[in-house]
Structure formats: C-alpha cells, structure tokens
Design a protein that fits this description.
- By secondary structure, the protein is an alpha/beta fold.
- Helix content is 33%, strand content 20%.
- Strands 3-2-1-4-5-7-6 form a seven-stranded mixed β-sheet, with helices on both faces.
- Helix 1 runs parallel beside helix 2, helix 2 runs parallel beside helix 3 and helix 5 crosses helix 6.
- It is globular.
- It starts with 21 loop residues before the first helix and ends with a strand.
C-alpha cells in the first residue's frame, strides 16, 4: 500500500495508511462508519493519512468532526496538508501543540478516542478526556506490543473489571487495545 493518502471525500476511495498500520486504519474506519461519532479525538498522528482517513469516514456519515492533537510541528503540518489535499477540511481540524493544552477546548462528548504517541501518556490523557465520554464511547490505543511496560497502568485501567470499560487487546499493527466505555 502507498504511504501517501489520496482521498476524494469517500473513505472507500482513500488510499490506506502504510501496510503495517492497515488493520488499525480499517478498524477505525469501520468504527466511524458504524457508530457515527460526532467527535473523534485523535491524540498523536503517526501517519498523516490517519487523520484524512478518519475524516473521509466521518464525511460519509454526513456529520461529525475529527480533532487531531499533535505535538510535533512536522507531523501536524503533514496531517493538515493531507486533510486539505483530500478536500476534507470541513470534517477535520489539526491542532499543533501539547495535547494536554488542546483538550480543554475539544467539544464534548468525545465518542471515539484514538491514542497514539508516547504510551506512558495514554492513561493521563484518557483521564483528561473521560469526563467528556459517554457510555458507548470507544478508545483505541495503538502500538502497544513492544512497550507494554510503558503503558501498563493504562492497560490495567481499561481492563480492570470495575473501571467502566470493556477492553480487548487486538493482535495487529504493533498491538492495539480497544476499549468501550460501559459506564
């Protein structure tokens, strides 16, 4: 699969992310199409095409918005350029800077939370967003397989039976944890 995104407003026409991230991209696209989230919050943007692919799926639903918070300037600019090139600016916004600062102005409720970036930040970021998550909200954290020690508290939090989540590890794309907020 190509590394560049080529979207024309339809997620079906959107070239996928690099092949080792293809399963996560497809999972996210399916979640957006099935659940019709109003607010998709992406924290960290490992590939600029992730944001554009999410925006393409949101556009197919005809409503909603993707907000990407990316601390690295180069990645934020690349994600914003991919969204604009795909003509999906109406459905996505890329915010550059530390996610902790951007989260205060993200409208709620957050229906789908995608966690990327440093795995040790997953739990603190989730806790910042949790007050704006309703039952049924989905959390997807990717790239966990080789860094389990760095995100052990996050995994324990979403897998603990009293946490209010139903969680499942998925064995693709470097390890993915998918959790649904139950309460």
């Amino acid at each position: 699969m190509p590394n560049a995104v080529s979207c024309t407003g339809s997620s079906a026409e959107c070239s996928a992310v690099p092949s080792f991230e293809a399963a996560t991209g497809t999972l996210l696209q399916q979640l957006v199409l099935a659940a019709g989230p109003l607010t998709v919050l992406q924290i960290g943007c490992p590939y600029e095409s992730f944001t554009a692919r999410l925006a393409a799926a949101v556009s197919e639903n005809g409503h909603g918005r993707v907000i990407c918070c990316e601390p690295e300037t180069v990645r934020a600019e690349a994600a914003a350029a991919a969204v604009e090139k795909a003509g999906l600016g109406r459905y996505a916004e890329v915010r550059e800077g530390r996610p902790e600062r951007s989260l205060a102005t993200v409208p709620g409720p957050v229906d789908l939370l995608l966690l990327g970036g440093p795995p040790e930040s997953f739990l603190p970021l989730l806790k910042l967003v949790e007050p704006r998550m309703l039952p049924g909200a989905v959390v997807v954290a990717h790239g966990l397989r080789d860094v389990r020690a760095l995100c052990a508290e996050f995994i324990a939090h979403v897998r603990f039976s009293g946490s209010g989540y139903v969680s499942l590890p998925l064995p693709f794309d470097g390890g993915v944890e998918m959790a649904v907020r139950a309460a």
